[in-house]
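Long-time lurker. I teach an intro course on protein structure, and each term I like to show students one example going from raw sequence to a predicted 3D structure in token notation. This year I'd like something fresh instead of my usual example. Would anyone be willing to generate the tokens for the chain below so I can use it in lecture? Attribution to the forum is fine with me.
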Amino acid sequence: MKFSFSNKSSVEQSLNIVIPAKEIEDKVSAKILATQKEARIKGFRKGKAPLDVVTKIYEPEIRQEIVYDQVSHNFYHQVEDKNLKVVSRPSLIPEVMDKGKDVKFKATFEVYPQVKIKSLNRLQYIKPSCSVDDSDLDNTIENLQKRMSTWIATDEISSDGDQVKIDFVGKIEGEVFEGGSAEDFLVEIGTKSMIEGFEEGLVGFKTDDKTTLDLKFPEEYGKKELASKPVVFEVTVKEVLKAALPELNEEFFKSTGIEATDLPEYRKNVKEKLEEDLVNLLKNKTKQNIFDALAEGNDFEIPKSMIESEVNNMRDDTAKRMGMDPKEMDKDLFPSSTFEEEANKRVKIGILLNKLIEEKELKPDADKVKGIIEERAANYKDPQQVINYFYSDEQQLKNIESVSLEEQVVDLLIKEAKATEEKITYEECVSGK
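-- Reply from a regular --
Happy to contribute to a lecture. Here you go:
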């Protein structure tokens, strides 16, 4: 057998497989004889059908089964012998399968990339810094009020932040389309939950007003049959509702999970909570920046099969978050193109982290593992019971050890790479931009 790398990338490989005709014929003959002893063929007692009759009926299926078994066996034997780490199922393409001739197949497959990481002391990344000021605190408290606000119908015209109850009929080329109409539909202006231009088009109207919105579905719209198409919505405003914010009193403070007797105490407690959260936000943002720098500084080809696998994982996670069963969802709702860029980045970073763990011979740090488990257990009523569970469940413990290894790699990168500090606003930090 012979490996062929001509016109192939570093991860996409091919293997020519040749199996001698005699090897195939011997196995086919042996399998037919074994089948004859058990065969139940009409007109003959069990195991008494003539060999030529058994051969005529069963040989094509037996031959195909043996050929593919032998090809698969030889493929994985060669791959193991060459110490190749295969990351996709091989595509086995028959070239010669004629009876009495050597069987010839061509296997194409992808292997785990060979990666050489550049010197870490040449790596540069942005280390963000941020603080919580009075305006950030004001915005946070106002947003908490908005979340707990009540909506009151008004005769005033609609504006950004209002809710509008509407009836609408959508038409494409003058025809009403399925799913494009609704009655008593609530839209909150400014949430960007509708297609571009829809919410903006509802500003400046009162109850019983009518309007027509000439819009266009986005290119990446979930329903392919609607993507990029011009659409007209005929809208009737049924009601305009404005938010009535709750008073800043003890009842409100308690409803947000904070015990306080007056506003100054409440502001102090909220600020402390924001600053606690900010520590983790900055830590995660720094980690992401250093991962991005690592990925940008080390270029290599990524196996398509690994990206496809990550895309499927991300699609399933998205479906679950929306309360859908991934097995029953329509994949057109979540096109692969939606996830490909992020999937590519995740896979690339994963490969680089694994390489660093291998090169630096990192092992899970027991103290760090313990710290992670205790931090997660602290959110439960009986932390010790949760701690015992993590240590008794092998899979859960492995997951925590993986988190520990990632943190150890981050510590290594921060220690060796060069940081450039950058001041960012609290809003930028929270939004993740």
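Some talking points for your students: The first helix runs from residue 21 to 38. The longest strand covers residues 230-244.
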